[in-house]
Amino acid sequence: MRLGPIPENPIERVVARLNLAPQPLLDTQIAYTLARLVMVGTKLGVFEALKDGPLAAARVAERCQTDARGTEKLLFALAGAGYVEARDGGYGLTRVARKWLLAESPNSLVDKLLLQFHEWDWMERAEDYVRTGDPMELHTVISADEWPTYQRGMRALAGTSAAEVARRLPVPKGARDMLDIGGSHGYYSVALCRRHDGLRAVVLDLPDAIEHAAPILAAEGMGERVTHRVGDALRDDLGEDAYDVVLIAQLVHHFSDEQNRELAVRVARALRPGGVYAILDAFRSPSAKDAGQAGALLDFYFALTSQSGTWSPEEMAVWQRAAGLEPRRPIKFRTVPGLGIQAAQAAG
């Protein structure tokens, strides 16, 4: 799946085929304008104002306490982009907006879009990164004001894939104990524990992460089945023969090859016989030719905001095999293109 110019009539299809359309303008000015306006509509409550039915722009402005003319321009733009539609003399939500952009939707991405205001600022460092090669280490530069937004945004993002994770992650039969490394909000653990009776999870993360993620986990009502433990994945002793499943989700892109190899050794020691080490992350293609748009862009984003960037499932399997585990075939997600699980199993 990729973003790009989509012809809307036969003439535009011909223009696109002949390379006459100024694609760089579409990929930049149109793309960043669209992104910013969807974010602004979310932040100002425009989509929430329309959740009960179509309204005139002036009524939306009253509900959002915004300027009537500015609100009309925003709604007009969002209609052109397919997030609202002109209806009954006003504007109503489309299926896309109703599913993803309402706070009470089980699929809500509202908190992720609010986080993207911070990510917008982080991306301004892209030029400096390319010039110097010096990335920002996200978890050390997030301010106290940004941590709550970051944790809620990560929880919203996890909601897009948690059901598939719970369904496809190879949990051993009769598994009792799981370690969720860097899981902060704990939602992957919640989804797995709800699917597998008798499974309990400990979520290991940094103190600042747990401080702001604890209310998010508490809201799931899992009690003692999913708990937090303060720690550092790069330094803590993970125990021996302690877990049936160890999950590390959206974290290995922050670690170097050496760090991931060393972590895999400690994970292998912590697994019980037959236990599973599952790495959930964006998969990097070994070749730019096969990377695809989303995968290649995410590799840059994570290289900018962490210490490494994304890894290929083949590289993940090397860490696992060197730790004495038996890698399985990678699981490529259907719901979130580019995301997947590289799992490996302990002997026994």
UniProtKB/TrEMBL annotation:
Keywords: Methyltransferase, S-adenosyl-L-methionine, Transferase. PROSITE patterns: SAM_OMT_II (PS51683). Pfam families: Dimerisation, Methyltransf_2. GO terms for molecular function: O-methyltransferase activity; protein dimerization activity. Residues 147-309 form the O-methyltransferase C-terminal domain. One of its GO terms (biological process) is methylation. Coiled coil: none annotated. It comes from uncultured Solirubrobacterales bacterium. SUPFAM superfamilies: S-adenosyl-L-methionine-dependent methyltransferases (SSF53335), Winged helix' DNA-binding domain (SSF46785). Residues 41-101 form the O-methyltransferase dimerisation domain. This is Methyltransferase type 12. The keyword Methyltransferase applies.
